[in-house]
Amino acid sequence: MKLANWRRNLVAVLLVCTLWITGCQAQAPSQFSQVQKETAKSGSVAVAKDATKGGEFNKFFPKATDGYDRVYTQEKKGFAEAKLKKDGKDVAMLAISDTRSIPGSAAKYANSTEKISGYPAVSIGNSQTSVLVGDYQVKVLSRNPQFTKEARIDWLSKFDLKGLSKLK
Fold first, then answer.
1. CB atoms within 10 A of CB 27
2. Signal peptide position in this chain (predicted)?
3. Phi and psi of 103, rounded to 5°?
């Protein structure tokens, strides 16, 4: 009986020692630790403090017309987004973002020769067209190859860009 107690006690002591030794070792750095350090630097913020609330953008989105449906999908500080659907399928993404939260995002409009409703416009690749309205970027992104650049320009001009330009 004493021999069995001795073995049980030895196993318990070894288990405690193993847990103590492995628990006190330094952990390897996470694969995300470098990114965390860079984004946590002083002055680095995910959204500017003075960014417009996403819900304020909704009134500037175009109304659903001509067989299209507009479905809001995301709304957060500095950003609002809606899907444009036709026959139940996604054809485009509509978005308004506050450029104060994305430093340098307005720079691409500086040399723009294209204008939509009087505002500087740029196209990126075959699927994105956007305009700069004051501190706000308005985008239309094709989600279907048949939704052409002309369609994106048409939908950009349906936004209430003049009303958006007055938003503070």
1. 5
2. 1-26
3. -55, 135
Rounded Cα gap, residues 45 and 101, in angstroms: 8
| Domain residue limits, the chain | 2-39, 54-165
**CA–CA separation, 134 and 15 (whole Å):** 66
Return the bridge partners of 116, or none: 119
Angle value at C-alpha 136, between 39 and 134, nearest 5 degrees: 125
* pLDDT given for residue 42 in this prediction: 44
- According to DSSP, the β-strands at 79-86 and 89-98 are antiparallel
CA distances (Å), 168 to each of 17, 63, 102, 127, in order? 63, 22, 17, 30
Q: What is the pTM of this model?
A: 0.71
Averaged over 23-31, what is the pLDDT?
67
Note the pLDDT tens digit of each residue in 56-103.
999 999 998 889 999 999 999 889 999 999 999 999 999 999 988 787
Q: Pick the closest to residue 94 from 58, 51, 122 (CA basis).
A: 58
Whole-number Å distance between alpha carbons of 74 and 81: 5
